[in-house]
Specification:
Blueprint (H helix, E strand, L loop, with lengths): L2 H13 L14 H10 L2 E3 L24 E3 L13 H12 L3 E3 L7 H6 L4 E5 L5 H13 L4 E5 L6 E3 L2 E3 L8 H10 L4 E4 L4 H10 L3 E4 L17 H8 L4 E5 L5 H9 L4 E4 L1 H32 L13 E3 L2
Parallel strand pairs: 2-11, 3-4, 4-5, 5-8, 8-9, 9-10, 10-11
Antiparallel strand pairs: 1-12, 6-7
Helix pairs in contact: 1-10, 3-10, 6-7, 7-8, 9-10
Length: 319
């Protein structure tokens, strides 16, 4: 199954299902339009002579990931797609050598997902009921996840078009993030960082991973694409934590642009859902492997032998 089939059939599938509404965006839908506009501003500097076949492995985790292409944080609408749909995603990502990132609600079978052997990051929302939030964190840590994620950008809930969702949330303070980090037995990620100021506070809190993300276009309208703020965030981070990015990435070329702007990993959200809808577990594997092949081909032709060789220098930005 190729990528065009996954995208075409996935879109058709979701258009016939009520829960396909979850694929929509907040209010005017600006975020989706802007994502593509920003990604298309970048072109590549090709270097063909003495090209060496690239290696796409991400070696920070043990064992290494076979690809820097991972699942963006989400749970819904996966469970609505079948009783074992979320397990199919886990198995599909494992076969592709990728990482699974769950969102909220926390999957009921989180321990089972971890038991598949795929690295699992799991998010918690900043619930107004902090006792419940801490209980959710304890549940996630007990499941044996690889990373714990904090959805800092869900501080006022989420929204699809004009319908508010998940509104029982409140902003996390810096001392609260520090406390969570100190109590966590695994690396902590803050998801939804879109400014140098928030990145600085994450560094102050000792956070291990920053996720530069517009939350799938489900929080605020008129947010920038992550690549529009990557320079200021990278300047603050200066290698002191890992940077993950997601938001409208669809092809290997998009992934390479995210990596060149300073990310270590790039997440896919809606494409995972399309792949699952079309091909189940194998569809998820095919998607990740297909995009990784595209990335490897591109890396080879821009002179990047490994992920460490990818830099902003391979990009030409339209002014």
């Amino acid at each position: 199954m190729d990528l065009s089939q996954i995208y075409a059939k996935g879109t058709e599938f979701f258009s016939t299902k009520e829960y396909g509404r979850l694929l929509d965006y907040v209010e005017t839908g600006f975020v989706a339009r802007n994502d593509r506009r920003v990604l298309d501003r970048y072109t590549f500097r090709q270097r063909c002579i003495d090209a060496v076949e690239a290696d796409c492995r991400y070696t920070i985790l043990e064992p290494p990931l076979e690809t820097p292409v991972i699942m963006s944080a989400m749970t819904m609408p996966i469970p609505a797609m079948g009783d074992d749909a979320i397990l199919q995603v886990a198995e599909g990502l494992k076969a592709a050598g990728s990482l699974m990132w769950t969102g909220t609600p926390i999957p009921k079978n989180l321990k089972e997902l971890v038991a598949t052997g795929v690295p699992v990051a799991a998010n918690v929302k900043p619930l107004s009921d902090r006792k419940q939030m801490q209980a959710d964190i304890d549940r996630i840590l007990t499941a044996g996840v690889t990373w714990l994620g904090l959805e800092i950008d869900a501080a006022q809930g989420t929204k699809i078009r004009d319908q508010e969702m998940g509104i029982a949330c409140a902003p996390l303070s810096l001392p609260e993030i520090v406390q969570i980090k100190q109590r966590s037995t695994v690396p902590v990620a803050c998801k939804g960082v879109l400014s140098g100021k928030d990145a600085k506070k994450c560094i102050e809190a000792g956070v291990d991973i920053i996720v530069v993300s517009s939350h799938g276009g489900h929080t605020l309208d008129y947010l920038p694409h992550p690549l529009q703020v990557m320079d200021e965030i990278r300047d603050v981070v200066q290698g002191r934590c890992e940077i993950v990015v997601d938001g409208g990435f669809r092809r290997g070329s998009d992934i390479l642009k995210g990596l060149a702007c300073g990310a270590s990993l790039v997440g896919l959200g809606r494409p995972i859902l399309y792949a699952l809808a079309v091909g189940g577990q194998q569809g998820v594997t095919d998607l990740i492997q297909g995009i990784t092949r595209e990335l490897k081909r591109l890396m080879t032709m821009v002179g990047a032998v490994s992920l460490d060789d990818i830099s902003r220098a391979i990009l030409i930005e339209e002014k």
